[in-house]
């Protein structure tokens, strides 16, 4: 399995975020892909999306701004099936590549 680790630091939101100039909390995020040709191809696309600022967004939660997953679906668990953002999910790689 491929494991993608993202460490998002706390900072202040920018123009285009829900509340520009407000501090937000960062966090550690982890996603999983199968270690095969399709998984590796998807990892390259996910990296490009991350570099372009498309992977995360600032969301308000209980009056606090924090980094959260954006609109690109990620598998955050290796098991539990589609309902728990995990595998097995036979359609995931095709679906995420369509989004990317």
From TrEMBL:
UniProt keyword list: Cytoplasm, Ligase, Metal-binding, Transferase, Zinc, Zinc-finger
Pathway(s) this gene product operates in, as recorded in its UniProt entry: Protein modification; protein ubiquitination
Coiled coil: none
GO CC annotation: cytoplasm
InterPro entries for the chain: Deltex_C (IPR039396), Deltex_C_sf (IPR039399), Deltex_fam (IPR039398)
Any one GO MF annotation of this record: ubiquitin protein ligase activity
Segments forming domain Deltex C-terminal: 5-97
Gene3D superfamilies (UniProt xref): 3.30.390.130
TM spans (from-to): none
Highest taxon above the source species: Eukaryota
Catalytic EC class: transferase
Catalytically driven reaction(s): S-ubiquitinyl-[E2 ubiquitin-conjugating enzyme]-L-cysteine + [acceptor protein]-L-lysine = [E2 ubiquitin-conjugating enzyme]-L-cysteine + N(6)-ubiquitinyl-[acceptor protein]-L-lysine
EC number, as in UniProt: 2.3.2.27
Biological process per Gene Ontology, one example term: Notch signaling pathway
Annotated localization: Cytoplasm
Family per record: Belongs to the Deltex family.
Protein name listed in UniProt: E3 ubiquitin-protein ligase
Organism: Sagittarius serpentarius (Secretary bird)
GN (gene name): Dtx3l_0
């Amino acid at each position: 399995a491929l494991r993608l680790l993202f460490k998002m630091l706390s900072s202040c939101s920018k123009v285009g975020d829900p509340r520009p100039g407000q501090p937000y909390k960062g966090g550690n995020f982890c996603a999983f892909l199968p270690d095969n040709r399709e998984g590796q191809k998807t990892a390259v696309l996910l990296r490009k999306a991350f570099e372009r600022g498309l992977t995360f967004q600032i969301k308000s939660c209980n009056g606090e701004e924090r980094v959260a997953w954006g609109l690109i679906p990620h598998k955050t668990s290796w098991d539990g099936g589609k309902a728990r953002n995990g595998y097995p999910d036979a359609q995931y790689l095709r679906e995420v590549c369509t989004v990317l």
